[in-house]
Every structure is written in C-alpha cells, then in structure tokens.
Specification:
alpha+beta, 52% helix, 9-stranded antiparallel sheet, globular, 1053 residues, EF_hand_dom, 8% strand, GTPase activator activity, Helicase, Ruva Protein, domain 3
Length: 1053
C-alpha cells in the first residue's frame, strides 16, 4: 500500500510561490521551452539553488510599486507590479479593483517614456494592440533594476512568442472579435494583430453571427466543449446569452482578451451574473492559469494517450465503473462520444499522476468541465485543480478534503455559533452534507446552471468561495437547521433548498423587483457581503493550524492499516511490527535518504510524480517501497553496527552524533531481502528479512551470513568471497575495544584457507607442496592470503562450503558468541519519536514563534556545537570516541577495562580440539530468540495503556471521517435531476430589437448586486491621475531628437 509520506515532506510555500498562486501562474520549471522534447513526466522540485535563492536556469523576479493606466480607460490604479518570469503581474492596493497577468511572450514592445523629472514610466504594447503605461513609483535605482530584469526576461521569451500565433486560433475570443459588428468596434480592432489576420483569412462571420461564435465543424478551429454539439444546460434565452456575449465583446475591445486580459471592476460585475456558455471554457482556463500549461505543453496530452493506449490499471478499471454515473441526465453522457471524451481525460490524468490515479468525484468534476471545454482544456484545468486550487482533495488519503472540512467546521463555530452548538448537542456532523459540496464544487448538489456560476467564482477568486457559499447556505437555512435532530433531516433539508434555489426568494413581496430576486442571487449576496471576512489568509491560517492534527490522524490510521495488511509477520508481536513500521516510515521520510535514483531515464509510470519512493505495479496498484539509500537509513536505526555514533564531550555538554554507515555488507543485505528482484523493498520484505536474522539461532545465523556472501547461490564461497566475508566481519567489529576482534578475524582467515584447501572441490586449489612456506615458519593469516593470491587457480571457483564455514566459525569462541547472540542482539527494536509527530514538530506562530523559527535552526545548532567544542578544546576538556556496536558501555575508561577483560578471556581453539568441540556443539540445541529491548515497569505500562486509548480514539475519529468521505463520494455519484437544467431553445438571432433591453436588464441586475455588495474603487484622483493621464500622451525618450522610436526601446520584437 501507499504510505502518506508526503505529509512529512510538506513545507510552507515561499513568498514567490504564494505570489504565483495569487496570480494563478505556474512556476518557471513547469513551463518547458519550445526546444525541449515533449514529456509526460511531471516536473519535480529538485533543482539546485544558487547563492541568491534562485533556481539554476531561472530568471530573477522582482516586485515594485507602480501605477497602471490603459489607453482608452479613465481609471488609474496604484498597486504592486511583480515580475514573475515569464509573467508580468499587477494588483491594485485594495487587491480587488484592478488585476492583470500578462505573459511576457505577448508583449511586442517596451519603451521608456519621456516624462516629468523623477518619473520613471514604461509603455507596453501587447500582441492584441493594447497599450499599457506603467509608472514605477519606487526609487530610481530600483526602477532601473526592474527595467533591466524585464528586458532580460522579455528577450528570453522570443521562442515562446513564435508559438503564440498558431495557438491563438484555439481560443473563442479571437473569433468573437475577428469581425466587428459596428463602427465603434472597428476603431479598436484595426490594430489587433491576430484578429485582422483571422478576418483576412475569411474565418469571420457577420456581426450577430459572431456573437454566437462560428459553431459547428469546419467553421473555426477554437476548442469546443460538448455543449457545442449537445447543447448547454439551461434555456439560453432565459439566461440572456446574447446580451452577455455582447457585453463581454465590448469588454474585450478595451481590456484585452485571453492572454492579455485585464480584470477591471466591470470584469467582476460580468462574472457574478454568469459567463456566456461559449466563453466559459476559455475564461475558466484564463482565470485558473491552466491556459499557460496548455500553451507550454502542446503535445503532452496526446503523448499520454498514445503511450498508454491499451494499458489497464486499477485506476482505469475504476474509471470504467463510474463513467455511466457521471451526470447521466446530460444527454452528451448518454452517448459514446461524450463518454469517450470523459474516459480519455480521466485515463490520461491517471497515468500522468499515478500516485493519485483516480478518485470518485473526479468523474463528476471532469464531466462538468467537458461541457464547456475541450479535452486538452479540461485536462490541464484538472491538473491545476488537483495541484494548486484543491490540493489533496483527490489523493488516496484525501488529506486536503479532511483538512478543509475541519477548517469549515471551525469557521461555522466562529461565524454561526448557534448552529454549531446545536449540531454538537444532537451529534450531527456538518460534513455529511458539506463534504460532497466541496468534493464536486457544488456540481452534484444544485442545478448545473447555478453550480457552474459558483465554479466561475472559485476559479476567479479562489477556494475561499467554497467556504463562503457553504456558510451562506447554512445561514439562510438557519432557523430550519435549529430544528434538525439527525443527519437524515440535515441532508433532506439541504436537498430541498437546492431544489428550489432558482425560485423567488421573496415570492409574496409587493415590489416586483424584489420578487425577481431568486434564492441563488440571495445566496451570492449573503456569501460575498456577510462572509467577505473569510479571505485567503483566513483559510491559509486555519489550514496551518489544523494540518498537524489531520496529518497525525492519517499517519496513525495508515500505520494500523499497513500492519493489518501484512500477510506474514514471522515471530514478531503486533507491537514489534508497529516499531518496524515506524522505523520504515521514518526512513522513507528522512532527508538523509536523499532523492531516489531512477534506474531508467525513460518515462515509466512510477516516475511520473513527486514522490520517488512510491511505485506503481503493472496492475496500477500504488505501493511505497524503499531503495538502497533509504534502506541504509532504516538499517542504521535498527542495527547498532550499521551506523557511526560519535560521542563528544566538552566543558559544557555531552552529545552523540549519528551518521549512516556505508559498506558492501549493507548492500548485500538489501539485495538478499529483495526476493522479487525489483531493486526496492516493501514493508513485507523488510519484516521477513528482519525476522530471519533476529529469530535465528547459532546455526541459522551462520547459514544466513554464509548465504549473504554466496553471490551465485551454489553453496560455495569463492576465495574472493571469503575475503569479502572477513571484511564484513571487520566492518561489524570496527568500533569494538581492544584488538581481540581483529585477532579473531585474522585467525578466521587463516583457518578458512587452511580448511578450504582441504575440503575444496578438485581443481579449485593447488597441491600441498605449493602451500609450504619458504622459511618453514608457522603460516600466518597474511601469509595464507599471500599464498592464496599467488596460486594459479582462479579466485571465482567454488572453494568453501557451508559445513566448512561452520567449522571455521566454531573454531573461535568469540565468533561463536557473535553468531549465537551478538548478531541478533545488535538488531534493536526501540520506539521512535512521539506518536503525534506533526503536532510535536509544528512550528510556533506569532512574533515570538517567528523569532524562534529564525534562531532555532539546524545550522545554528551546529554553530553552537562547534563553539562549545572550541571552548572545550581550549580548556583541555574536549574528547571524542566511537561508540562500540556490540559492547555494553560507551564510557572511554570502561571501554579500556572491558578491553583487558576481553583480552583475558581470549581463547582460540587448537586444531586438535576442533573436532571434539564441533561434535559437542552439533549435538546441542543452537536455536535462540532475538532479544528486543523492552521495559516492564508500572509507569511504562500505564503510559502504554493511555497511549493505546488515545490511539483507539484517533483511529475511531479517522475511521469515522474516512467512512464519511466514502459516503460523500457515493453521494456525489447520485445526483438529483433538476428541471431547470433542461436544454432550452438556442439563443437565436430573432428578436434583435430586444437585445438592447436584455443588455440593460443584465446591467441593472449587476448594479443592484453591487449596491448590495460594495462600491467600486475608482482608482487614483487628483494630481496622481493627472500625471498618469499625461503619460498616456507622452512620447518615448529620444524620439524627438532622433525621430526613431527604436532608440528608446527596451525591447522591440
């Protein structure tokens, strides 16, 4: 199974990442260059940083104060201008009135304007002919530095600009503006670079036809959703689609479109009255930023489908089961065409992100997206939803969903305390209803025409909208909710409310304008007016506060599940298996293990995600396995000889520094335990491997050690393998006191070659005459090795069998004790850190917490240790020694005494005694059990009982939440039918005389909403606005003198 190790590797986002999330732009590393080969592998965040904190190969960004004005607009806004290569982003000071995200590859020309003294202003000409003036209000050196960085970033985007022209025809807004419908529009579109080319190519239509779009095959290349073929939900005439499209067309003429769209106050007005159906898909990808991923990865989606055609996995099987339950009331999903599109998107994403694979409710979300978007558009928007907007919502542990449900409950407790207290008193869980809302973005809870308007707001304003809408639903139904006594009543009440959400909120009111207000309009007003205090910062703060609790609960539940799923546990108890799991999981999450090295550079299913120790088998099952580097960390925690422990004392403190050891013996153990030959170990492999060595007796330990060095498994060790085995013994004994262990290994080598020559198969050794020493002296281990090296026989022939190896080991009392007891005792199962890891390691917040986070760092701890060591050395009280692996003490004086004691009991058996002792030991019982450190004091027992109770409570809580999640997923799959979603008449070209009235009615609705919501920010006034207006008429610097504007250009493309 897959372990939730990503919870340990979670880190708070940097300032640059938060800024990019706010502007909905991807990281630089997620945007490959056009020259890079296409790849389906997800980009990992493992690039090195230079000294300035910038990743290698990336452009440097910068933030500066600025004033923005646009030619043709009176409003002027002061705010922050951010260079986030390859994007130029602006946000007004109030963070809502004006906002823009312009890719640098859409900027054709940048000039510095000839302005007043002390004013540094730049003029930007975009691809669509829009002119933007940026007045940099910071100090002159900062403004010049910003201009230099902007120039360098613009030059780096030349290859991307070449890809822009063939990409733009895929966007509906290009066709919408290709042929103007009136003379006013003509004055604005004469200079639109791409639109004039489309018009010249003959792809435009007459004015009113343009408002509805080309439509149909062969009438345009823009990306189409299923709604183009099967119709969009709702009645287009009642939703006034024509008038909305006309308003958006007018907005695009002045404020830009798609890549160069500026979000002024009218944008928010048009958004909250609903997007036109044909424009919705494009605006979704522009607002979410998925359009930048689709532009930079034009071949990825097709490659995913072609490379994985015909493949089956657990995810694809689950997808097939849910296809027919994906918005079945919409007629596109009653046909093979609609189901085929849905299948392709879900399958492609399951192979791109196999760690996530597929989760119920994804089919509902993607089915909704495909109504308005093409397959590629929906695929990239799905990636943005899963990675950035709704992180962790659809992961196997669903930690994002559980976390946000806790956040929502916390907000209900804060904003609606009466409802929260009542639900608590009657034991009703808010999440039984709210969890399906969040999972499906309300698509499965209310009529589609209203749910998609909520999706509009989520993609435009962020995930806070989900919380604001949820709180508004509870507040509007507050009186009825106080009468609820169980979960069933709560769910039925919510279903009834959503079934009437299109009805009048005040049907009996005398004023017809009040009667025209629907329940949905009231919901939006309550959500955005009364709960506007719920901001992105609120959600981030609550998530940070509750993340540790959720993470600990998920880890504890995963531990119990992993232990239960083991098929064989050997002689270990349940508690011991739990300790092994803790060490295994700690090693997986340890930074000492480093990044996993992928053996094959070709993109494999297991390579396509950010957790390199998670692998996907041929059936699509996800499993956590450890590689060799992680195994060394794990074994260093278990085996005393597999780590280097240095004890340091000085005048102030005594500390023990631990480091992972590295030797061929550890590699041999890793590959011996990898019985399936996958190059990695599962938890089951580790348990069985430990069980064999820790439960082994004398003979079993000797056999295990012999097989560890028998590479070809033929029952014989070669001469080289005998030497390697002796080196393994020296590695284990390297830190033991005295020279008794070295003498024992030396004697082992002597006896091994002596007995090996006598028992080796014929042809593996030379004659006895060749083994005589030159001076007749007694042969030593060194001379035996030299003589062995000098023989003519090759060293890779069978030489020493298991029986002879036992004889050699039993000839030495120290080696016998080692294999009889010390080897198994060196594997110690000790408890790891606290159960509540995340809560124990949660970083403190606030001013004091921030100071502690700055001071208490690993680097500062190392500096303090070095300083203490320096003082200790100056005072003559500094000492270091290696902690022995097999001895029972770590005190240097005691080690000296123990060395003399061991030396006194040194006893190497003579050849005459070997046969008798061997027979005696063979007749005895040599089985023994592994020794595990345990404590049986009364206090520890009481503590264990308390911990067990707490674990049971946590498991019960998490199990309840998991059952709730599964129930919510199942509820998402059963969506009620809403009559209002029925596809009505298309918004035909008749009734043209009513067009202006419909437009006025929409704008009146907008104005009423704004009057109830809040007023617009009209931007700067007075002298500041006068300066900005003058800059719109200013000429580039040097233009008068030279008569050529190119002299003043920062960049002219």
């Amino acid at each position: 199974m897959s372990l939730p190790m990503h919870l340990r590797s979670y880190r708070e986002k940097s300032k640059d990442e938060h800024t990019r999330d706010f502007f909905n732009v991807p990281l630089q590393e997620q945007l490959p260059n056009p020259s890079d080969p296409p790849s389906v592998v997800k980009i990992r965040n493992h690039h090195a940083h230079n000294g300035n904190g910038i990743k290698e190969g990336e452009m440097q960004g910068m933030e500066i104060s600025a004033v923005l004005s646009v030619e043709g607009k009176e409003e002027v806004y002061a705010g922050k201008l951010s260079l986030l290569p390859p994007f130029l982003c602006f946000i007004s000071l109030d963070r809502k009135s004006c906002r823009s995200t312009i890719p640098l590859y859409t900027i054709r020309r940048v000039e510095r304007l000839n302005s007043r003294a002390g004013v540094f202003a730049l003029s930007l000409a975009t691809w669509h002919g829009m002119r933007i003036v940026l007045q940099l209000t910071s100090l002159l050196p900062a403004a010049e530095q910003f201009a230099i960085l902007l120039r360098d970033a613009l030059k780096s985007q030349l290859p991307q600009m070449k890809q822009l022209k063939p990409f733009l025809p895929s966007l509906y807004s290009e066709y919408l503006l290709a042929s103007p419908s009136n003379s006013h529009a003509q004055t604005h579109t004469d200079n639109l670079l791409i639109s004039t080319e489309l018009a010249a190519a003959g792809t435009a239509h007459d004015g009113e036809g343009d408002l509805r779009g080309p439509g149909g095959d062969g009438k345009g290349e823009y990306q189409r959703g299923l709604g183009e073929t099967f119709g969009f939900p709702g009645d287009a005439r009642k939703m006034r689609e024509r008038s909305k499209m006309r308003l958006w067309r007018e907005y695009f003429l002045i404020h830009g479109r798609n890549f160069t769209l500026l979000r002024y106050p009218p944008f928010q007005r048009l958004l909250q009255v609903g997007l036109p159906s044909r424009l919705r898909g494009e605006l979704w990808e522009v607002m979410s930023g998925s359009i930048y991923l689709r532009f930079s990865n034009p071949q990825t989606y097709d490659l995913l489908l072609s490379q994985n055609a015909g493949k089956h996995s657990q995810s694809t099987d689950e997808i097939e089961k849910d296809l027919n339950r994906s918005l079945p009331e919409y007629k596109a999903y009653q046909s093979e065409e609609g189901l085929a599109r849905l299948r392709r998107v879900l399958v492609a994403y399951s192979f791109r992100n196999p760690e996530l694979g597929y989760c119920q409710a994804l089919n509902i979300v993607v089915a909704g997206l495909l109504i308005y978007m093409s397959e590629q558009q929906a695929f990239w928007l799905l990636e943005v939803l899963c990675d950035r907007i709704l992180p962790g919502y659809y992961s196997p542990s669903m930690e994002g969903t559980l976390l946000d449900q806790r956040v929502f409950e916390s907000l209900v407790h804060r904003c609606l305390p009466m409802i929260h207290e009542h639900f608590k008193s009657v034991d009703v869980q808010i999440s039984v209803a709210s969890l399906p809302w969040f999972l499906s973005l309300y698509i499965n809870s209310m009529p589609l025409i209203f749910a998609f308007r909520i999706v509009d707001c989520v993609l435009a304003m962020g995930v806070k909208v989900l919380f604001q809408i949820g709180l508004a639903v509870l507040k509007i139904n507050g009186e009825a909710l106080l009468q609820v006594t169980d979960d069933g009543m709560f769910i039925n009440l919510m279903r009834g409310y959503f079934a009437t959400i299109g009805d009048s909120a005040h049907p009996d009111h005398a004023d017809p304008r009040i009667r025209a207000i629907t329940n949905f309009q009231e919901l939006l007003v309550v959500a955005f007016r009364e709960f506007n205090v719920i901001t992105d910062e609120t959600i981030t703060t609550e998530r940070r506060r509750l993340r540790a609790i959720i993470s600990d609960e998920i880890e504890k539940f995963s531990k119990r599940a992993a232990v239960r799923n083991l098929k064989r546990v050997g002689s270990f108890s349940k508690d011991q298996i739990g300790i092994i799991y803790d060490h295994y999981f700690t090693a997986v999450c340890s930074p000492e293990a480093g990044p996993a090295v992928q053996p094959n550079p070709i993109s494999l299913p297991g390579d396509q995600f950010d957790q390199p120790r998670i692998q996907v088998d041929a059936q699509g099952r996800v499993e956590t396995r450890i590689d060799l580097s992680t195994f060394k960390v794990f074994l260093g925690d278990i085996a005393t000889w597999a780590r280097e422990e240095t004890v340091t004392t000085n005048a102030f403190i005594q500390r023990t520094d631990r480091k992972v050891a590295d030797h061929e013996l550890i590699d041999r153990m890793f590959f011996a335990w990898d019985t399936q030959g996958q190059g990695s170990l599962s938890l089951q492999d580790v348990v069985l491997g430990l069980d064999r060595v820790m439960s082994a007796g004398l003979m079993e330990s000797i056999e295990w050690f012999f097989e560890l060095h028998d590479k070809d498994k033929d029952g014989y060790l070669t001469k080289d393998e005998v030497i390697q085995l002796s080196e393994s013994l020296l590695f284990i004994f390297r830190n033991e006191p005295g020279d008794i262990y070295l003498a024992s290994v030396s004697k082992f080598i002597l006896n091994a070659f002596e007995f090996g020559d006598a028992t080796a198969p014929e042809g593996s050794v030379t004659s006895p005459q060749d083994r005589e020493t030159l001076n007749g002296d007694k042969e030593t281990a060194s001379s035996a090795r030299e003589r062995s090296d000098s023989t003519a026989g090759p060293h890779n022939l069978p030489y020493l069998n298991l029986a002879t190896f036992r004889m050699v080991v039993l000839a030495d009392e120290l080696l016998e004790n080692f294999f009889d007891h010390d080897l198994s005792a060196s594997f110690q199962l000790e408890g790891t850190e606290e159960e509540d890891y995340h809560q124990a390691h949660q970083r403190p917040e606030g001013l004091l917490g921030g100071l502690m986070n700055l001071v208490v760092t690993n680097e500062n701890k190392n500096r303090l240790n070095r300083l203490a060591d320096g003082f200790g050395a100056a005072l003559g009280k500094h000492a270091e020694w290696r902690k022995p692996s097999l001895a029972k003490t770590a005190d240097p004086q005691a080690i000296t005494n123990a060395s003399s004691d061991l030396r006194a009991r040194e006893s190497l058996l003579t050849p005459a005694q070997q046969q008798g002792n061997l027979q005696r030991r063979r007749s005895a019982s040599f089985t023994s059990q592994a020794s595990v450190k345990t404590t049986n004091t009364t206090n520890t027992q009481e503590t264990n009982i308390q911990e067990t109770k707490s674990l049971v409570d946590v498991e019960a809580r998490y199990r309840e939440e998991s059952q709730m999640v599964r129930a919510a997923q199942e509820a998402v799959m059963h969506r009620p039918n809403f009559a209002i979603d029925a596809i009505g008449d298309s918004d035909g070209e008749e009734d043209e005389e009513e067009g202006e009235e419909e437009t006025a009615a929409i704008m009146n609705e907008v104005e009423r909403f704004l009057a109830q919501h809040e007023a617009d920010d009209e931007g700067l006034k007075g002298e500041q606005k006068k300066v900005a207006t003058e800059l719109l008429k200013a000429e580039p610097m040097g233009a008068k003198a030279s008569g050529d504007k190119s002299d003043a250009s920062l960049v002219d493309i």
